[in-house]
Amino acid sequence: MAYFPNIEKIKYEGPKTDNPFAFRHYNPDEVILGKTMKEHLRFSVAYWHTMTQDGSDPFGLPTNQRNWFGATPMETARNRVDAFFEILEKLGAEYFCFHDIDVAPAGDSLEEFFANLDEITDLIKAKMDETGIKLLWNTANMFSHPRFVNGAASSNNAEVYAYAAAQVKKGLDISKKLGGKNYVFWGGREGYESLLNTDMGFEQDNIARFFKMAIAYAEKIGHKPQFLLEPKPKEPMKHQYDFDAATAMAFILKYGLEGDFKLNLEANHATLAGHTFEHELNVARCYDALGSIDANQGDVLLGWDTDEFPTNIYDTTLAMYEILENGGIAPGGINFDAKVRRTSFEQDDLFLAHIAGMDTFARGLKAAAKIKEDRFLADIREKRYASYTEGIGKKIVDNQEDFESLTAYALDHDDIKIVSNHLELVKSELNDYLV
Question: Euclidean distance between the first and final Cα of the chain, in Å?
Fold first, then answer.
């Protein structure tokens, strides 16, 4: 059965096309800086927002119109696999991501859940073998069920901890089965509601123990995907332990996980933490820990995680510049952790939204590549720090100075001339690359 019979494979038709079901800027075979767009962008579609999100919100019932619901939860799950791969093929997306609960119903016991997962992932593997589409990453949903009200690996209940370990073990088994490139840990409830009843140090120690068990098990089964932590400052907990990229890196370094973990960074999570997306990417680059990204955007007028499809060219350009400076993000990718708006409820809106996001990142890639080729930002930064390339500055960088010698130098050179950053000019010239 075709779930989207009126939609053909989405093709690149150029910026002048009036066909809404065509790419205007994403040309997968166009070569930029020696690689095709497809190789640079490594687009992935998120199972949860695409297949299970229903358009409901805290104030309203579901609005989304979908044609894959069956008579039972398992029939719906089977139908979703077919519909999802139809979307992937028609979009030309080569990767996908999912939580365990996205693809299979939980049933009435952990044993039944695992059996359901086995059946559905068999169907997914058959589709992967048929189409060549690959699993970018999978993860375990350890935040929705009431058992995780106080967290999973950070839970005060050891039985919850054991249940979470079983879910992740199954997730790693599935990753091996499907050839997953990465495995993500998003600590949805790994944080605290109040410090009054929380032993924060103990909870973080337990999370580290959990991660080390995951590493050991991956090595035991001979399948070691790139492990990724995904920072988020709040929601659903008041304070989450993986607040932002810097906090997550502090955790990774404290517990000696830097050889096994990198970061999966999301644009909307960055803004919730009070940062720009490019800031978070840059922090990760500083630690050689930029692993993968979730592509979306938030609404600065709203104080929660809106997960909108990315359409802001300024933000995507600066994000893609960081990715280019990183040398790419393989084996990670650009996963659309984004959902259609509640008012975009027709089934075809799933295509229109992904096309918009893919075109926006294509435009960001082209602009970022031009910035890199012209050395626009590189030259500005080199000029700004030029005093460290010669004289006393070079001696500082080469560790040839100390406080006494620098004091002696300062006493003889206290007539200091500083130069304007001309930041308004820089921002104005940057805009020229976005047109």
Answer: 42
